[in-house]
Design a protein that fits this description.
The protein is mainly alpha-helical and 206 residues long. It is 60% helix and 5% strand.
Length: 206
């Protein structure tokens, strides 16, 4: 192979790479247009003017949402994956995908983070039957996670399980936990301890 052949091959390779880049950009523009027609949030309006954004960490979840829109199949399986897709489906108003995410999450074990997320979201999202079932499951999880048990340490007293997690709760979640019938307390000082722990961790100057 001569020097000129190598030069021609290099130009040919660069041309192919440039062509692939142009094709990718063109597909993105077309994809953006299609997306705007199918998702109300992306359509032009006085509120959003066709603008949308999402975090880089949500890229895979966003791809899952798009795949669902065109194949009616959802690839997310874990609670964390479903939670991210559900959050995007709420923002982009893809209700059927959101419903499917909730139905799957009802069948899966929850975590402290996911339970708190749903309870915090309860005041701002559409309360479907699936969401209500998930909220009830989240409350049951918290009541079990923060069980109050009796201890004998010279005198009878009560102790919160996983008490170090109390400070991580939002005020809404703490209120939900303390007012639910699923939480069984023997002494009222248990409630006082939970509130005091939360205040000391979250309220400055106290």
């Amino acid at each position: 192979m001569t020097h000129s052949d190598v030069w021609d091959w290099g130009l040919h390779t660069n041309f192919l790479q440039f062509s692939a880049l142009c094709l990718t950009f063109y597909c993105f523009i077309c994809f953006y247009g299609i997306l705007g027609l199918h998702i109300p949030l992306l359509s032009s309006s006085s509120h959003n003017n066709g603008f949308f954004c999402f975090l880089c960490t949500e890229k895979e979840s966003f791809v899952d949402l798009i795949k669902y829109m065109y194949t009616n199949k959802l690839e997310a399986h874990t609670v964390e994956e479903l939670l991210h897709v559900w959050d995007l489906s709420q923002r982009f108003l893809v209700e059927s995908c959101g419903t499917l995410c909730l139905q799957r999450m009802i069948l899966l074990p929850l975590s402290l983070e996911s339970s708190c997320y749903f309870l915090d979201s309860a005041a701002v999202v559409n309360q479907t039957e699936e969401f209500k079932a998930l909220v009830a499951k989240s409350i049951a999880f918290l009541a079990n996670h923060f069980r109050v048990s009796l201890v004998m340490n010279g005198e009878i007293s009560s102790r919160w399980e996983n008490s170090e997690d109390l400070a991580k709760l939002s005020s809404n979640v703490l209120e939900t936990l303390l007012t639910t019938d699923d939480l069984q307390v023997v002494y009222e000082d248990s409630v006082y301890y939970a509130v005091r722990t939360w205040i000391r961790a979250n309220c400055k100057g106290t």
